[in-house]
Please model this.
Amino acid sequence: MTGGGFHRGEGPAPRPTDWNLPNALTVLRFLLVPVYAVLLFMEGGSSPWWRFWAWVVFVLAAVTDGIDGKIARQRGEITNFGKVADPIADKALTGTAFIGLSVLGVIWWWVTVVILVREVGITVLRFVVIRHGVMPAGRGGKLKTMLQTLSLGALTFPLAVLPLGGAWLFVAYVLLGAALVVTVVSGVDYVFKAARLRETSERTRLRRERRVSAREARARDHAGATRTPPAAPTGRPSPGAPSDTDAGPPPVSPGQPAPPVSADAPAAERHTAAPEIDPHPSADPAGRGNPARE
Model:
């Protein structure tokens, strides 16, 4: 990776290291936050001298916030650490300034609560929807950051020592009111952007397709289970049809002796049994005595 951010040669560009100038500026901003808080509360926050030095530290930290991202884009040194640490450092600086000035009675607490709830909520929302995609900062978010920085810097500075200090203080509160309105409006806009990103992301589309496929598979299984199968033959005779036990003994052909009938057989079988045929039938007595047949 060259200084201008263009990769020379073949193959993929090497991954930028976390040890670079933009990340160093972000870490510096983290370190300046407690320094600003200590200077702001020196001598109860009423000393113009210490308030001036707190303002200097705040301006230095705000400047690092404005240039670290620009340097990272120009030099191709955008890293995952910078993506996560930069917005956290911004919220730490502005949050400390809002809380500190509210403790000193410079900013109303309800303004601080509204702004901090919005800032923390949108930061958490960004991490929630990061599975669906990155939610870039819009114009409203950038305008909000600028107005907050200007108003906090002006209220940190000891305006009372300046000529027309009351007029400058009025301008500072006007900037604070504008920052409050833009903060709330841009927060609502971010909520709608997050919902739209979640509905149109590739992850949501694939999950919706899997859900439809599973629903269709369950419908096919349910239809197959409710279909009535054809009745299988049971081998039993239908009601009213004669069975083998009701058919009686088999018929006896002429010249064949009848099967013996058991004494235990039903009376109907004993009565219906055919009579036994004599194998040597005798001649008709009347025929033997007839002289005409001889």
Notes: The domain at 21-212 is CATH 1.20.120.1760 (Four Helix Bundle (Hemerythrin (Met), subunit A)). Confidence is low (pLDDT under 50) at residues 1-7, 268-274, 281-294. DSSP finds nine helices and no strands in the chain. The CA atoms of residues 33 and 216 lie 57 Å apart.
